[in-house]
Design brief:
This protein has 18 helices and three strands. The two termini are about 40 Å apart. It has helices at about 1-15, 15-35, 50-55, 60-65, 70-75, 80-95, 100-105, 110-135, 155-180, 185-210, 215-240, 280-295, 305-310, 320-340, 345-350, 365-400, 405, 410-435; strands at about 240-250, 260-270, 355. The protein has a three-stranded antiparallel beta sheet. The radius of gyration is 25 Å and the shape is globular. The longest helix has about 35 residues, at about 365-400.
């Protein structure tokens, strides 16, 4: 405890780090304040049904968690930062097929700025579709017509859509400012803060459920917390685990060439066990909306198949939902790793810099070797990721916890919290080590895995 307090003092001594942390906290506070501001023209007293639906978990609970409760509040930030995330994913995938985007990706900083501008415009386009859909869906989510003070005419819809679009753009600007002027990845921090904001309420509901009557009591609450910490440790292992590939570099001579038989120090290429992060879960969740939607429309609506699809795939804690969900995560993990880890480019860069993997010829053989290693470590990584994703359903089934609290036992929420926390700690740690202070993290080494 003494060392922790001393570390906090060291953080406060570094003026640049102190100012960045203050800016980050201030901008996050602005984001949380905006999540409580209800859209003009909606009666806040009649949003109780919407809140009750989102508090119970399910697909609406996930959306509400990602926006920090703004979805249930029908607030300024009801759409959250997710349209920007969707636009970023679309632009990244389009970069595989559109030569213009491929060219921009190779142009360095100027190309990155152009891609960011394209992403911003696409975000606005997505918001213009999602905002009216959200407003019209409020009725089906339990918000009565009397809650709309001026009705649902154009005099309400147009200003409300503009406010929702502006809210997402403002949230995107806050995220970029946190990245530039604050500490950590701004967009990820906004998502993490939104998720954490819903955690106290979910825990209180679980606590009340356990302590009222003979439903396990405090002992079961303690067991749940211990299991939760164990799952967090497992997520940290998944995020930090790497397979280190040894690399040897030929030592340069004074003339700029290489000495053929004299070698420099050995280094390593760290290949992450989970190189795709939470993106496979996000992709899979996006697709999992489709079966229930298909079951509600068209010729299947009044058939046994349609009713089965609607029933099974509307419940995110159901058996078939989680089986299909896990399979999709494994598939998307391979897909996203293949497009984000360019093994051939890594091999070419290694060859140009005079490096090679011992026992492997530079060039194509190195690329094939790296691709083989990535395939080997991606398999257990994808299985582990799928297990983490379906853990909320397993915990709910085995332990009978509240649905809102079960969401924090795995899935996208927990992985985002762990990943963003580690990234932010590493950035703070680098500031401390550069000033010759002891860092937050005792060791900076990643966990090694053998494939």
């Amino acid at each position: 405890m003494k060392n922790f307090i001393e570390t906090l003092r060291n953080i406060w001594k570094i003026e640049e780090l102190r100012s960045r942390i203050i800016v980050t906290l201030g901008l996050l506070l602005v984001y949380r304040f905006g999540a409580q501001v209800v859209l003009p023209g909606i009666d806040t007293q009649q949003l109780a049904e919407l809140s009750s639906r989102t508090d119970g978990g399910g697909l609406l609970g996930i959306l509400n968690a990602f926006t920090g409760g703004a979805f249930a509040n029908a607030s300024f930030f009801a759409l959250g930062i997710m349209p920007y995330i969707s636009a970023s994913i679309v632009v990244q995938l389009m970069g595989l097929a559109i030569p213009y985007l491929q060219k921009l990706q190779k142009e360095g900083e100027s190309g990155r700025k152009t891609i960011n501008q394209i992403t911003r415009w696409l975000t606005i386009g997505i918001c213009l579709v999602q905002a009216p859909a959200y407003l019209y869906s409020l009725g089906s989510l339990g918000v009565p017509d009397s809650a709309f003070i001026v009705g649902k005419g154009l005099d309400f819809m147009i200003p409300a859509v503009l406010i929702l679009v502006t809210g997402t753009i403002f949230a995107m600007w806050l995220g970029e400012k946190i990245t530039d002027k604050g500490i950590g990845n701004g967009i990820s921090l906004l998502i993490m803060v939104g998720i954490i904001a819903t955690m106290p309420q979910a825990f209180v509901q679980e606590f009340v459920s356990r302590t009222s009557g003979s439903n396990g009591g405090l002992m079961l609450i303690l067991i749940e917390i211990i299991i939760w910490f164990v799952i967090i440790l497992a997520c940290i292992m998944l995020v930090m685990a790497t397979r280190q590939i040894p690399v040897q570099y030929a030592r340069r001579t004074a003339s700029g060439g290489y000495e053929k038989n004299v070698f420099g120090s050995r280094q390593y290429i760290p290949l992450k066990l989970n190189a795709s992060g939470v993106m496979p879960i996000i992709f899979a969740q996006a697709i999992m909306f489709a079966p229930a939607y298909i079951g509600r429309i068209g010729a299947l609506k009044d058939t046994g198949t349609g009713q089965w699809l609607q029933t099974e795939f509307s419940n995110i804690f159901g058996l078939w939902y989680n089986i299909v969900f896990a399979l999709l995560i494994i598939i998307f993990t391979y897909f996203y790793t293949a497009i984000t880890v360019p093994t051939n480019k890594m091999a070419d860069d290694l060859k140009r810099s005079g490096g090679f993997i011992p026992g492997i010829r530079p060039g194509k053989e190195t690329g094939d070797y790296l691709d083989k290693i990535m395939s080997l470590i991606t398999f257990p990584g994808s299985l582990f990721l799928a297990l983490i994703a379906v853990l909320p359903a397993i915990v709910l089934s085995l332990m009978g916890v509240q649905q809102g609290w079960a969401l924090f036992y795995g899935g996208t929420s927990l992985l985002i919290m762990v990943g963003v926390a580690i990234d932010t700690m590493q950035q703070v740690n680098s500031y401390l080590l550069n000033r010759h202070y002891d860092g937050l993290m005792k060791t900076g080494k990643n966990r090694k895995v053998v494939a």
